[in-house]
Design goal:
mainly alpha
């Protein structure tokens, strides 16, 4: 008796689940990016045709505020939609890990920007955007997806592992001839 027929459907189901998670993760990330960008611009530059933004003299604090709001939005979106089947009971622990890995993703993007500017000597607006918002964003996003799926939203993993072990035990019993 071979396990190949059972393996292919399991692999296909795992692949389809991964594709759905990647699509949802990308959607949440894109919305968080738009939220961050719009909020920053409103805080610093105001709404077009009105007064200046309330933080026009504090662009760095405005960026901290906009990134903070976008991070909470991203956590909620990923927790309630992307990885809803992987949630754990420890909400505070999950949020702290999410923020920590989000910060590491930011450091990846900053490292790409710093390498481009200070090692390669590229300091144009185009070079900054390619390094920080292109290469850095892609590498940081890949890291975040892996880290969130592996360490933050892992509630289902324990159930998956238990089910896999039970399945292996059941298959082992099915193969053992009864005397």
């Amino acid at each position: 008796m071979t396990t190949r027929p059972a393996l292919l459907p399991r692999l296909r189901a795992a692949y389809e689940a991964l594709v759905r998670e990647v699509a949802k993760f990308g959607t949440v990330g894109a919305l968080a990016f738009v939220l961050d960008t719009v909020l920053y611009n409103v805080l610093v530059f105001g709404v077009p045709g009105t007064l200046d933004g309330p933080m026009d003299d504090s662009p760095l604090l405005a960026k901290v505020a906009s990134v903070s709001v976008a991070t909470v939005f991203s956590w909620l979106g990923n927790r309630l939609w992307t990885f809803r089947h992987r949630r754990s009971a420890g909400v505070a622990h999950e949020f702290v890990l999410f923020v920590l890995f989000n910060a590491v993703g930011l450091l990846i993007a900053l490292s790409c920007l710093a390498f481009s500017r200070y090692v390669l000597g590229l300091d144009s607006q185009l070079a900054d955007n390619i390094a920080g918002n292109g290469v850095g964003l892609v590498l940081g996003t890949l890291f975040r997806f892996w880290a969130y799926r592996t360490f933050v939203f892992r509630g289902e993993l324990d159930q998956e592992q238990l089910a896999l072990r039970a399945s292996r035990r059941a298959q082992g019993r099915a193969r053992t001839p009864v005397a």
